[in-house]
Amino acid sequence: MLAIDHVVLAVRDLNAAAERLLAEHGLASVAGGRHPRWGTANRIVPLGAAYVELLAVVDPDVARSNPLGRLLLGFTAEGDRWFTVCLSDDDLDGTARRLGLEIANGARERPDGAVIRWRSCAFEDDPERTSRLPFFIEWDVAPELHPGRAPAEHPCGATGIARVDTACDPASLAVWLGGAELPIRSVDGQPGLRAVALTTADGVDLVCS
Prior knowledge:
The protein is of the alpha+beta class.
């Protein structure tokens, strides 16, 4: 089964982006951690079963040494931009076989010392594709350690991800997802993730673009 796990907003500065999301959209965030292999770090906007990830390069030298870091440096050269969608997958091995992908292990340490671990595919091997199509993740943590479960109070009352808008070929996306039906809407525009709609406590979609 596939479901939207999180969406990634590539940003130039984590603290500045966090302040902007709070001021413009009423979204609070918490510190995430560092990804030493990529030269990046993140902040988390918790939404229960899902979350918004703010991802930034914090070590340019390391980032320039790997494809993902180089892509993020160029991707955010003119400002913060939506980067990609991540889908939770309870059959990650089957998805990897179906699409001919390799599974990679990942981990980061939270500020409180807890280590978050996961397995993923379609994220590191081809970052350009990752900016156009979702990648897949399987968490290796207790449910309460899922990033979306971190405590946070959003002034806007956001409670989850209602849908995402992406500019891509609908037929290619359907094949990539193996026919799974998800709240991912194809729109016109430059290929990639274009907007994210969040559900609030009163049922209204808050669109962040």
